[in-house]
Structure formats: C-alpha cells, structure tokens
Specification:
The complex is a heterodimer of chains A (110) and B (114).
Chain A: E1 4-7, E2 10-14, E3 19-25, E4 31-37, E5 43-49, E6 55-58, E7 61-65, E8 71-76, E9 85-93, E10 97-100, E11 104-109
Parallel strand pairs in A: 2-11
Antiparallel strand pairs in A: 1-3, 3-8, 4-5, 4-9, 6-7, 7-8, 9-10, 9-11
Chain B: E1 4-7, E2 10-13, E3 19-25, E4 31-37, E5 43-50, E6 53-57, E7 64-70, E8 73-78, E9 87-94, E10 104-105, E11 109-113
Classes of the chains: A mainly beta (110), B mainly beta (114).
C-alpha cells in the first residue's frame, strides 16, 4: 500500500537555525498538501503543490515538489518559537482523500 | 465564528459503551471527513462524505457509523467502544472532492476509554 514517510520524525533546533522536513513516497504523488499542527491543536493547511519541480514560498517557509513527484520538502529559514509544531505532508489521492505522512515534530529552543 | 466545530471536546467513557461525536461546518463546503489521530500522531482518514453521500470508508470497523443529515453536518457514532479507540478524532471539510482542495479541521475530540 501507499506509504508516505517523513524524516526526521523529531527535530530540535535553536531559535534562529534553519529546519527542513522531507516527505518521501514509494509511489508517485498526485498533489502534495502541507499542514501544521500546533501542540494540542488541529492541522492547519499551509500550501498545495501540484506541478513537478514546483517551488512556493511563504515568508520564511519554502516548499518544493520533486521533479519525479516522489518527494517534497518544507524548509524554514531562521526558526522562531512560533514555528513549534508537527508538520505533515499529505498526498491527495482520488476524491480529495488525503493520505497523511508520518509527520515531523519541531521543537524550537529559545 | 468557528468554521468547523466538534462536540464534545473531551469524551471519557468505559469500554463497551456507545458514544457519538457531532460535527458542523459553516463554510458551505460539500465534503466532510472524519480522521483518527493516534498517540503517535499518525493521522488517518476514516470516512469521507460528499453532499451527504458516503464516498470513502477506509477499512474502519463497522462499530463506527457516520451519519450526515445534511451537507453541513457529519456525526460519528461508535458502538461497543474498545481500548484501541482511544485517540483524537478530527472532523474536516473541503469545497468539493474531485479536485485537490484544502481541508479545514475542527479542534478535535479527545476520546479516552477506561
């Protein structure tokens, strides 16, 4: 079956350091969505990537979709304490069904 | 104004009981979902409804029965609760289901089985 793995599972960074989470699939991804879940909160949509090789930016966040559409990444420049949370990628399969990755839990040390 | 609201927020009950979780969205979306998030934070789709019709049922035990009285509501009833049902259940909604659309999640219902 489909597997969407994210690495690392956990990441601790000092405030101001950069952070990257990688999303890898054993099968070709359709569309990738990224979500952020704060501790005790619910997933919140960040962005969607559709095209092979696509790169999108949101302030300090940079999202990439691999050329072969088998991987994606989220990079945060100069992390802040407000970036704390779990970041999920999700593959959109048929009927807008989201198949979530395993998530990367980010801790930012002030 | 809460877009996707779930009740209750917390649910503590004994094994074997039957319980329901309610979800309502005021976004005018056509599609609603139920997700289960376990203690390791894995988030898995359970059901998807489009305009009150079941679209997806992802190998969920038949003790779980969703009901959509109208497209703004999707409730989840669980019979004969088991220890393994302890999790956070999220309701979500999106506009349409054929094209990729962002999903809007409720705050979650934290279900604990004693």
């Amino acid at each position: 079956g489909q597997q969407v793995m994210q690495i690392p599972q956990y990441q601790h960074v000092q405030e101001g350091e950069d952070f990257t989470t990688y999303c890898n699939s054993s099968t070709t991804l359709s569309n990738i969505q990224w979500y952020k879940q704060r501790p005790g909160g619910h997933p919140v949509f960040l962005i969607q990537l559709v095209k092979s090789g696509e790169v999108k930016k949101q302030k300090r966040l940079t999202f990439q979709f691999g050329e072969a559409k088998k991987n994606s990444s989220l990079h945060i420049t100069a992390t802040q304490t407000t970036d704390v949370g779990t970041y999920f990628c999700a593959d959109q399969t048929g009927a807008n069904n989201l198949f979530f990755g395993t998530g990367t839990r980010l801790t930012v040390i002030p | 104004d809460t877009a996707v609201s779930q009740t209750p927020k917390y649910l503590v009950t004994q094994m074997g009981n039957d319980k329901s979780i309610k979800c309502e969205q005021n976004l005018g979306h056509d599609t609603m979902y139920w997700y289960k998030q376990d203690s390791k934070k894995f988030l898995k789709i359970m059901f998807s409804y489009n305009n009150k019709e079941l679209i997806i049922n992802e190998t969920v035990p038949n003790r779980f029965s969703p009901k959509s009285p109208d497209k703004a509501h999707l409730n989840l009833h669980i019979n004969s609760l088991e220890l393994g049902d302890s999790a956070v259940y999220f309701c979500a909604s999106s506009q349409g289901f054929l094209a990729a659309q962002p999903q809007h999640f409720g705050d979650g219902t934290r279900l604990s089985i004693l």
